[in-house]
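Hi support team,

I submitted a single chain yesterday and got back a structure, but I'm not sure I'm reading the C-alpha cell output correctly. Could someone confirm the output below corresponds to the sequence I sent? I've pasted both exactly as they appear in my results page.

Thanks,
R.
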Amino acid sequence: MVDKPQIIAHVEKSLNFTLFDCKWIPCSAKFVVLGNHARGTGALQIYEVSKGEVKLLKEREKAKAFKCGTFGAASLQQRNLATGDFDGKLSIWDLENTDTPVYHAPAHKEIINCIDGVGGLGIGEGAPEIVTGSRDGSVKVWDPRQKDLPVATMEPSEAEARRDCWTVAFGNAYSPTERCVCAGYDNGDIKLFDLRNMALRWETNVKNGVCSVEFDRKDINMNKMVATTLESKFHVFDMRTQHPTKGFASLSEKAHKSTVWLAKHLPQNRDVFMTCGGSGSLNLWQYSYPDKRVITDDKGVDMGVAGTVSLLQNVTLSTQPIAGFDWSPDKAGLCVCTAFDQCLRVLIVTKLNRI
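Hi R., thanks for writing in. Yes, this is the structure output for that exact sequence:
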C-alpha cells in the first residue's frame, strides 16, 4: 500500500558512550542526549539537525551517569531539562549554563530509573511538577519551586516488599486540581495514583515487568494508556470508564519478539504510537476505537470496551535494544532514538497526515 507511512533513517551517528535517553528541546531543531561514559560519569550532549546532518553544539561530563530526562515541567521561555541519575539525584539544568544545576535534590537512595514532567510547555493545567521512580521502590512527585522535599511520596510500607519502579507517567492534568501518576514495576504491577485525593485509584498486574507507561495525552481527561512489558507484549487500556471490580478495559498485543522497551504517542495524533523493541526494531501502531466505548454490565454499571490496534509500519534499525525515543513536538513525523549500539538516529516518519 503506497499510502502507508514510511520510517526513514535520516541521520545515524555513532558515539563513544552508552545512551539511555534522548529528548527534543521544545521549539527548536535541537535535541539532548543523556548517558554514561565507560568510567561511570554522566554524558550530556546537545545536537542540532541541520542540512541533513546532526551537529554537536555542546558537551558536558558530570560526576554521575544520567539515566533519564524530561522537559515536561519547564516553561517555554527557559526550557530547563530535569534529569535523574544513577546516584538517585534529581537535577534541573539550564542548558545555556550547565556548570551547576538550577535545582538539585537527593531524591532517592538508588538509581532513578524514570522521570516525567507536567505543567510546563503549556501542557497540563496547574503547577509544574516532576515525578521520579527508582529502584528503591518509591515514586516521588516534586515541585521545582520547593527545595529538597517532595510534594508527594508513594512507597510501600516497611512490611511490604519493595519492587523496582521502572516507569512513571503523568496524566489526567485537565484542570488545576486534577492530576494522576501511573507507575509500572518489575513484577508486572501497574498502579494509578490520584494526586488530588492522595489515594491509590487503581492497580493491576500484567504478569511481566512493565518497561514503560504513557498516556496518549497528559492534559486531558484520561483517555488511553499504553503499557509495554518484557516477553514482547504491550497493553492498551481505555481509561475513560472505570468499572468498580473489573477496572479499565484493555487489549494486549504481541510485538518485536523481544522486550518492548518503550511506547511513545505521536504529539500531533494521540491514536498513533511507536513501540521500541529489544531487537532494535520500531513498530508504528494505530488505535481504533470500538463502535461503543461504554456498555453496561448485568447490574447496570458502566464498563469500558477496548478497541483494536493495527500495525502501520515496522523497521529494524539495530541489533541492540532501542531504549530512548522522542517525537518532535513541533515537526510531525520527526523523531530521534538511541540504542545500546551507542548510536543515535534521527528518523522521519512520512504520510502521518493521511492516517
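A quick pointer for reading it: The mean pLDDT is 96. Let us know if anything else looks off.

Best,
Support desk
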